[in-house]
Amino acid sequence: MPTATAIASIKRDIFWGVLFALLAAVGFSAKAILVKLAYLEHVDAITLLALRMVFSAPVFVGVALWARYRHAEPLNRHEWMLVLVLGLLGYYLSSFLDFLGLLYISAGLERLILFLYPTMTVILSALIYRRAVGAKVIAAMVLSYAGIALVFVHDAGVSQSGILLGSGLVFASTLSYSIYLVGAGHAIARIGATRFTAYAMIVASAASLLQFAVTHPLAALNLPLRVYELSIAMAIFSTVLPVFLLSYAIRRIGSGSASLIGSIGPVSTIYMAYVFLHESISWLQIAGSALVLAGVIIISLNSRSVGK
After folding, report:
1. Is residue 99 part of a domain?
2. Considering the domain boundaries, does residue 5 fall inside one?
3. Which of 93, 136, 156, 170 is the most buried (most CB within 10 A)?
4. Structure pTM?
5. Is 2 part of a structural domain of the chain?
6. Is 86 exposed, middle or buried (0-12, 13-18, 19+ CB in 10 A)?
7. Number of domains comprising the chain
8. By percentage, how much of the chain surpasses pLDDT 70?
9. Tens-digit pLDDT profile for residues 168-218
10. Complete DSSP assignment for 276-303
11. Is residue 71, in this structure, part of any structural domain at all?
């Protein structure tokens, strides 16, 4: 029988894990809005991704140095490979494909496709780690994706040039991110949330900057001030903060719960897109948002069992 202190500690971990996952979801969702606003200034995806990473990298380098001195034991070869592969998959490739997709589709539709990842993450976790998927998790998935389906019906009625290409790019981004989330749970347990996140983001930043250096001249950085302002906002509120919040959420409630709680993301994106991008909103979207929220509540209440 667990003691009262142990029960209180578990509840505290669940509370902070759920809160961190929700805040991370909103922060990541704001990225699509900032990207679409930056595209109005005629900047391309590679340059914008490089700017996002160059403003984020100093924070991650500082955290990595701090973590290195705090943890005396160095990473072994296997752990370095985890950092390299997951950094490239989860933060570089996923972000690059997502930025490309946003050239062709709306912020709301992008977030809907991106949030297929909870289903992929739960299935991958069940297959790799042989974890059972409980009835409450299945119910939450049905509610969340029924809501997402309603919003998709609304957006599918809007004719857009390149919608199939954009949707395919974002779907590929989703698959890449799902693989990252599954691997991140294992890597964080071995390496630690702070150190793993900092190292993985440095890998992603280096890949983004290398891609820009190979494909663009320095003159490509002659951009309006607005692009730099949006890039800095993206670095702080849609990269640095949510990346660490998500890692801490995974450590407390597990990757399956963290990803499913993140289903709030499409809801926040729809409303932010309405306010900042003047994208349309309908009763169908509102109904879908309500279903997604219901699924999130179920996951929040079930976090303890899912996170085991």
Report:
1. yes
2. no
3. 170
4. 0.80
5. no
6. buried
7. 1
8. 88
9. 899 899 889 888 877 777 777 777 777 888 888 899 999 999 999 999 999
10. II-----HHHHHHHHHHHHHHHHHHHTH
11. yes
